[in-house]
Structures are given as C-alpha cells and as structure tokens.
Amino acid sequence: MSRDNILHRVRTALGRSAGQDVVDPPPVRLRLPHVEMEARIASVRTRVEALAGKTHQVSSPAEACAVVAAAIQGKTAVTSNAPFLTECGITELPGVRSGITDREELRELCATLDVGITSADYVLADTGTLVMLSSPQEARMVSLLPPAHIAVVPSDRILTGLDELFTVLPNPAEQSSSMVLITGPSRTADIEQILVRGVHGPGQITVVLVA
Question: H or E element: which one contains 43?
Fold first, then answer.
C-alpha cells in the first residue's frame, strides 16, 4: 500500500481532506477535586502499601528522624541535599553520608550503600506517586540506584493527582531537566509474567509523611 493511499485513509477516517488546515486542539481539561488533607494522606498510604511499599505518618521532623534511624539501623545510607532532610536531623544520623556535591563520588556511594534517602517535590494522593524533579538538591541517583529508598515528605506537598500537578507545574521542563514519577518499588515481569522487584530501581520503598 502506497504512502499516499495510507494518508488518504487516515484523512478519510478523521473526516478531513487533502490540504485542509489542522484544527486547533481542544483546550486542556484539568479536574481539581477538593480532598481534605487527612484523606490525601490516607490515600497515599493505601496506594503505596498496595504496591508492597511501606509508609509512616508522623507529626514532627524529630519523629521522622526517629523513624528513619530505626529503618537504617545497622545499614549504610546516603542522603540527597534536600533542605528538609537537614531540618529533620536525618543528615546527622550515624552511618549516613550527606552533603555530597561531586557527581562521581555520589555515583560510587549510591552504587555501594544500602539506602538512598530523599525528600520529594510532590506526592500524588490518588496513586501514591513520588514526583522527583532532578536538581542539585535532589539528584536522581539517590532515589534510583541504592537497593532501598526512603522518602521523607511534608504533607503540604501532597497533591490530589496529575491534574493538580500540571496546574502547579504546567511546564516541568522549565524547572528541571528530568521529572521522575516513582510509584512503589521497582518491578518488572519477563515473558512468563514472573514478577521481580528491584531490577530497574530500588526493590524497597518507604514513604514517611510529616503531617
């Protein structure tokens, strides 16, 4: 079948003719439901745990630090440079490397240590998704390379879903070279549908919400 014939069929299916101008796309329709914060937190926890992740809800940065300290006891960890982690005191915990700015040093640490600890720019309540904008404060390696990932996030960063995200952040490319959406632990399945965690990222994920 010739190229012209294929294009003719496509135009016919769309109700258009050759040479006709392409109409403007319809306006973007974003739905922003009103969801109370308690319901947002509950939804995040339900969604993350449904995907074999772990969650904690705490009421202060000090409590968040205690949760992280218990989770990494006997392990080694590296943190991103997110200011919220410093506010929580997590960067000062024993066994934690922090304040790394050299890319090669950070790569080596992320490849050899047990846990990567970050904050997150946003969390989507309807799917439990962490939204990570790559920046000097949140290097992608910390959330993607170690076998376990802990994200410590203040509850005021919880959005209802993608529609609200793209209302708050309509042009992500203007803010960052990369926006990563993390929904639960890394998982993949081969042709026999055998589910394996941790192939393309952390096999364990813990989300600590500071309300």
Answer: helix 37-50
